[in-house]
Structures are given as structure tokens and as C-alpha cells.
Amino acid sequence: MKIHGSHRLPVGRERAYALLQDPEILAACMPGCEALVKVDEDLYEMKMKMALAAISGQFAGKVRIGDRNPVESFRLIVEGTGKIGFMKGEGLLRLREEGAETEVAYEGDVHVGGTIASVGQRLLDTTSKMLIKRFFGRLGERAQ
Amino acid sequence: MASTVTKTEVLFGKKMKRKEDPRLITGTATYVDDIQMPGMHHAVILRSPYAAARIKGIDARGALELPGVAAVFTGADVKDVGPVPCGASLPGLRVPHHHVLAQDRTYFVGHPVAVVVATDRYIARDAVDRIEVDWEPLEAVAEPEKALEAGAPAVHPQWPDNKAFDYHQEHGEVDKVFAEADVVVKQRITSQRLIPCAMETRGVVAEWKSGEKSLTIYTSTQIPHLMRSLVAGMLGIPENRLRAVAPEVGGGFGSKLNVYAEEALMGFVAMKTGKPVKWIESRRENMLATTHGRGHVDYYEIAAKKDGTIVGIKLKLIQDVGSYHQLLTPAIPTLSVLMMPGVYRCQNIRADIVGVFTNCVPTDAYRGAGRPEAMHGIERMVDILAAEMKMDPAELRLKNFIQPEEFPYATATGLTYDSGDYAKPLKKALGIAGYAALREEQRAARSAGRLMGIGLSTYGEICAIGPSPATPAGGWESATVRIEPSGKVTVHTGCSPHGQGEETTFAQIAADELGVDFDDIIVLHGDTAIVQYGIGTFGSRGTAIGGTAMYFAIQELKAKIKRFGAMMLDCDDVTFSGGRCVCDKTGKSVSIQEIAAASYRAMKLPPKTEPGLVATYFWEPPNFTFPFGAHVVVTEVDKETGDIEVKRYVAVDDCGKIINPLVVAGQIHGGVAQGLGQALYEEAVYDDSGQLMTGEFMDYCVPKSTMMPWIEDSNTETATPVNPLGVKGVGEAGTIGCSPAVVNSVVDALSPLGVRHIDMPMNREKIWKLVQGGAA
User: Fold this and answer.
1) ipTM of the predicted structure?
2) Could you give the CA distance from residue A118 to residue B112 in angstroms, rounded to a whole number?
3) Which of A33, A42, B154, B328 lies 20 to 30 A from B90 at CA?
4) B132 touches chain A (CB under 8 A)
5) pLDDT in tens, B218-251
6) What pTM value is reported for the model?
7) How confident is the model at residue B168 (pLDDT cuts 50, 70, 90)?
């Protein structure tokens, strides 16, 4: 599934870029995130709870940051597996200054498998948009 | 008290309510999940979330720590259990070794990986989540045409071209007639993957009696005896120490004409744990891991003369096999080839099948099994030809029918059609529909800018499968008829019905033959400890073969009844009818009940006659039977929404002699529902990585009662000479006749927009795009 969209953060680009790479901030803002631990430069281990329609479960996975181009863009690679299936996603985030604010545009590809795919794919598009929106909303609150 | 009344009412041909229905509609039938046993444990299966993956390790400790969990078994534990069998054989067929649990690799989403046994189903389910599998995901391929491309991921590494088999059949002078033809039309036609969706999912209860060294497997199957023979082999136990019971079976549609990994696995688990074990498939598992149907990509070419005479048919058939061969997987598309000429007189055919492995659940029989695909193909092609030649599709069909005087008719594919009069149901259906008036109405609708369509199909099909040389495991059927000392009649049929109503129709036949009350007859089936060996219910064979076996067993009994009657009446010439033996000279008579009592009491026996009234008959049919019919469908397409309204559905089916018109109508209605499901709604969709996207009823749309049109059903009756009952079979006819008639109707509706073909399912999005001028 292709995903793309953009959200605004009420901070300058340098601050936005830093926020997006701070494990503590990210863990607090990602819906369902239960732990995000830096294990290596650019590599984090993540535990998150996900609910999609009638199915819910815990995911354990890895988040990797690549193609760093401070403060313009970076790539996010997420892999998670759990009892309700697995997900793999890759996306490019681009930051653009808009006056005192920053617009973060993302575009990427998400693959899911297992029960999430056979039961939840119908809701995946809207659910992922909702989760991303919630993430940026919380991040915006934190940033101020 | 013994009856003194001579029965004269004939039940053959009479509408009678089914004996089965009261228990089915009051919740008092016994399905596998209704079976309870002391100490029963429950099994839940861990299935692969990947379409292709290597299993690098399995850690089940977490599951075993959960209180209530008795055992966990993985691939390593079952490596000596025999492979899940493929019963079909073709030259050069590649058969991958199909273990009951995945070994080091999984091949489709839903592939069984481990089984947890616990005291409670919920504990077992929770324990499954505690098993840690170290997966290495691999590249997968889910579409047969993509799997054939060079460089596609290999489903089975040993066969990088993903070919499971090739099959070629040819007759006549195909190249010559195509070269000389006035018209040749070509079309790619798909018959999409479908999920059978039996109302009752699969389920198994296995009980091992260690003292008796015997295993009982209760399973929701269409073939208890074949399942017993094959699972005994898989588990390495003697066949006579395995009892198979098919209790009430809530539909199968071919998906239970199989031997599944789970059936042997539960036997294995019961033997290992010493506990009775129950496994009930969830609906999600059913959609993932029970066989699918269809899965064709067909390339058709049809050649005709100027006057519309069809002279040649070519077919390149790509069959989506899935990851393994289940029991009959490779045989199903060969049935499509056998029926490819349909009801038309065409002696020049060429067919090439390529069976293709994909990382999907295997395909196998599904209501019609190969014949719906074939009829969809030929009936679409005839309509495409009619459109090309600007001929009326009914006229073109009438012109090409095999004529009544040509039967028995040898087809180009090697079959001998038993009997037929194809114009009869077509003319009747056109009459009921008011065809000429409908075409008038259509002209008016079109000039008013409305999209109205009239479509028809004239199908033929193979039933009563089948003579033993043409089937993988014997094509006969068996029956035992026992007249008890009281004169009550117990029939044991080797075919194991699961919704077909044979407890009723067989009783109708037996009541007529023996002159006993309909209510005095019971028909038992499905338990190998009670019923003599049998083949099962599939391929519309139950009544035509199983009913005939019973008929012949009764004839043997009637001869014996007459010997007893002659002795009891002290008369040389007796006639048996209406439940009484009558002395032709004196007119004195004795009832079947009195004869039954005397035969068991055995104070005196006729010469060379054993006591009792029991006969067993195994009947080998000399041929298949070939029912036929015509369906006419009127549709209107909503330009704004793409919605298709089925305004009229006329079905005229000829299934030979009709025993019970209610049962026949029920089969047609159910069959049409499934045909309509394929035509309009249903499709099993896998994404590129082999994930099933239609894994529940929210995404896989089977028609609900409110989505069904009113079916104007009727029949013509053309008896078959193949069996003495004259019956042909009707279990699949409705499905087979339906999908081409519906698609022909919608294509006809959209033909003013230049539409020539639409692949199924014709959902609103597809139709709306076509109306807007885009590609389907």
C-alpha cells in the first residue's frame, strides 16, 4: 500500500528535524508505542500495540533511519512482527520551512501480512492515515 | 401389526418435504463440533503468516508453560507421517512432498506450522501466540501468469519454471478448419479463484483407544471411506483399525472432497497424547487454508463458417494450482477440457493446459469442478461469435446443437453423451421469458438510453462421476438394503450425502420398489463401522450411482421376497407389488412385513435360500450421465452506480427423470446462488506477496438472500439410458448454467457502448468504469 501526505509542525526546521529523531519524544508521540530503545546509531528497537478493527496485538520491531540529509530529509524503515501478522514500511520524510513552521511531507510503501492483511486491509489505509495524523498532532503539542 | 393394504401411491416424481430438514432447522443435528467426550482436549493450529518463508527455528516453551497446555507438535514431530495425498495422475505430473506440518519452509499463508493441544480451546488459542518462530521471509508469487514469467520466484525451488504439469488433447483437423474458417474469434476469459465457504467449516475429532489399538476420526467430509483408506496409510495403522465417521456435514461443495493434513494430524495427536482431540476450523482459517476453486486463465479461439456453423475450438488453459496438489487438483482442469465443446457439434478441438504452482492455498473441486469454467468459456465464446456475425445468440446455438437423433454422441474430447435434446429446454426457457417480447422491450429501453441486457446459456455437463476407469479411486457406489424382522427398511448408502437430500429421495425409490411406507425407511451413511465401503458424494453422483446401487440391491431382495412368498402361499407363480406377494392362481397374498418376519424366524426356508432379508450391491456405471439446460437472464445496468439488477432469471434444467421436484428446485436455487456469486461478487484476492486480501465475509462477498433474484425454475425430462432410474444428477447444474448467462446478459446490456467481454466478478466499480468508457 502506498502512503503519502503532509503535516505541519509549529517549529522551525532544525527543531523539527531533531524532534523526529529523538527516541523519547517519538515513543511518547507514536500511538500505541510502548518502548523505543536506541540500540545503535540509526537503529531503534520498538514495541507497540496496534488495533485494527476487530484485531489487536503487540508488535515488536525495528526502526532504522537512513539517507540522513539534515535538516532536509531522511528515510524511515520500519519492520514489525506480532501475533496478528507483520508489517514492513519504508518512507521518505522531507522537511520544508514554511515561515516559522515546518511542513513534513512523507511518501512510502507499507506491506502487511498475516491476519492484518486478510482481515484488516480494508481499513488499513484510513487507519494508517489516522495514526499518522495523531502522531504529528502529539508531536506538534510537544514541540511548543 | 402387519399391513394388509396394498400400496399403490407412486412416490417417484412426487414433491416431498425432506426427512433431513426438521433436525437441520431445529438445531438437533449432530455436527463434528457437537461431539463431546470425557477428557476431550482441543487443538489449535499455528499457521504461516508468510506466503513463502524459511523456518529457522521454533521455540514452543512459552506455549508449554501455559497451564492447561498438554503438548505442542511441530514439523519435526510429524516428519514420518505420510504425505497429504494427491489422487490424480497425469504424465509428468510434479508432486511436491506435502507434509502435514511445514518442515523447514512454508509455501502459502495459512500453511500449518505447529499444533497446540490443551484442555480448552481458548487456552490452546492463547498458547499458539506464545510460540516463537524465527522466520526468514522469501520472495513469493501469487498469480499464475506471473509465476510463468522468466525470473519469477520459484514456489518449489526444485522447479524454477513453476510448472506443475502440461496436458495436451487434440482431435480432428484443427489447423485446417481454422485456416479455412470464415470467421475466427479470440478472447481471454478468466474464471477467478473462489472460496467455497461451506456453512460448516472443517472440523475433526480424533479418539485413540489404546487397548483396542483403534482410532476413530469424526470429520466433516464428503468421502469418509476414502479418507479412512488414505489417512490409515498416512498414519501407518491398519485400515480396519481406523473408523471414519462423517456426522452431519454442513455443506462441502467439493471443498470436503479431500483428505486434509489436519485429518491425519488430529489422528496423530490423539495417538501421541492419548486424549480425544477436537479441532474446529475458524472461518478465517477456512478462507485461508481450505481448498479454493476455479483459478483459470483461458485463451479461447473459435472458428466458424459464414452460416454460423462452429468448426473448431482452441483452448490454452492456465490453471492456478496453488502451492500443492490436494486430492484432485490436477484432474479438475482436465474436466474442463472434456466439456470444452459444450452441447455443440464440433469435432475439431485442441486444448493445452499448463498447471502452475503459486504461493497460494491449493485449488481443487468447487461446485461444478471444471465444468463451470468450461461452460463459461464456450458459452461466452458462442455469444462473442454471435455478436461478431450479428446473429441472434439463440439462433446460433440452435444451429450448432447436437441433434436428438445423434445420441449416443461421441464428442471430440472422447466422451459419449448419453442422451439429450438441447433445443427443448432452450425453447421452453425462451418461451417462459418471452424472448421476442424481451428483445422488443430492449429496443425500446435502448432508445430511451437504458442499458438492458438479455443473456442466455445452454449448458451441458458431466454427472454421475463416474465409471471407475475414468476416476482416481473407483467410480462405482454401494448400497446395503436391510429389511428388518418388523418389515422396517434400513438402507446403508456408500455415498455420504451432506445436504443433497438423499435420505428422502432414496426412501422415495425404496418405498416404490418395496411397497413400504416412506416413513418406514431410514437411510444411513457416513460411518465406516456401519456402512460398507463406498466412494462418496461429489460430481452429482449420489442418486445416479448410489441410488442405482440401492435399486439393484432391492431387486435382489425382491427375488428373495418372492421365493419366501411362493413358499408361504404354497404357489409356484407369485407377483410382488405394492408391498404384497400375490399368488397368481388363488389371489391369496402375504405382506412384506409377514415375509420379513418369516425370513428371520426361519421355521421353514425356501430351497437354496438363506434366512434374513439383506442385500448388498456394488454398482459400476457403464458411462457418465450428461444433463443439460438453458438459463435466460434479463439484467439492467444502472449507469450512475454500475449496479446490475437481475430482473428475470429463467432456469430450465434437464437432469433426466426427476424423483423429487422440491429437491431438484433446491439444488438449482443453491447452484444459481453460487453461480451468481461468481458472476457478480466473489473473488479470492491475493496481493503480490501472496497475502490473502479477502479473508473474511466483509471482504469476500457471497450473495445474501436479499441479493438473489426470483428464480423461475422448471424442467424438461430426458431420461438417461445409463441407469435404470433414468436419473442424471443436478447438484452442480445451477452453478454451471448461471455464470455465462449472467455475463452474457450484462455484456449484451453494455454492447451499445462497444463492450464485448467482461471478466468476473462484475462488481459495480468495474461496470461503472466500463459505462464511463474506461477499461474493465
Assistant:
1) 0.86
2) 16
3) B154
4) no
5) 999 999 999 999 999 999 999 999 999 999 999 9
6) 0.95
7) very high
Specify the domain boundaries for CATH 3.30.365.10 within chain B: 21-28+476-619, 296-466+623-771
B135 → chain A, closest CA residue: A81
CB-CB neighbors (< 8 A) of B50 in chain A: 86, 113-114
Domain B40-138+199-251+256-289: CATH superfamily, name plus number: Aldehyde oxidase/xanthine dehydrogenase, a/b hammerhead (3.90.1170.50)
The CATH 3.90.1170.50 domain(s) of chain B lie at: 40-138+199-251+256-289
Cβ within 8 Å, pair A122-B698: yes
| Nearest by Cα to B650 from B722, B716, B596, B717 | B716
Return the CATH architecture of domain B21-28+476-619.
Answer: 2-Layer Sandwich (3.30)
Check pLDDT > 90 for residue B427. Answer: yes
CATH code of the region B296-466+623-771: 3.30.365.10
Q: Enumerate the residues of chain A whose CB falls inside 8 A of the CB of residue B287.
A: 118
Q: How far apart are CA B771 and CA A97, in angstroms?
A: 45
Q: How confident is the model at residue B1 (pLDDT cuts 50, 70, 90)?
A: very low
d(CA B390, CA B671): 32
Nearest to A119 among B51, B284, B689 (CB): B284
C-alpha dihedral over B262, B700, B455, B253, to 10 degrees? 20
Average confidence (pLDDT) over B611-640: 98
Distance to chain B for A33, nearest Cα, Å: 20
Q: Which of residues 22-81 of A touch B (CB under 8 A)?
A: 57, 81
Tally the residues of chain B.
776
Calculate how close chain B gets to A81, using CA atoms only, in Å. Answer: 10
Q: What domains appear along chain A, each with residue ranges and CATH number?
A: 2-143 (3.30.530.20)
Contact B50 A113 (CB under 8 A): yes
Q: What is the pLDDT of residue A123?
A: 83
Summarised one tens digit per residue, pLDDT across range B632-650 is 999 999 999 999 999 999 9
- Asked if the model's pLDDT at residue B3 lies above 70, the reply is no
Task: Give B151→chain A minimum CA distance, Å.
Answer: 22
| Chain A residue nearest residue B109, CA to CA | A114
CB-CB under 8 Å, B49 with A114: yes
Instruction: Name the more confident of B69 and A85.
Output: B69
**If you average pLDDT over residues B642-669, what whole number do you get?**
98
Chain A hits for B689, CB-CB cut-off 8 Å, are 111, 113
CA gap B269, B692 in Å, rounded: 29
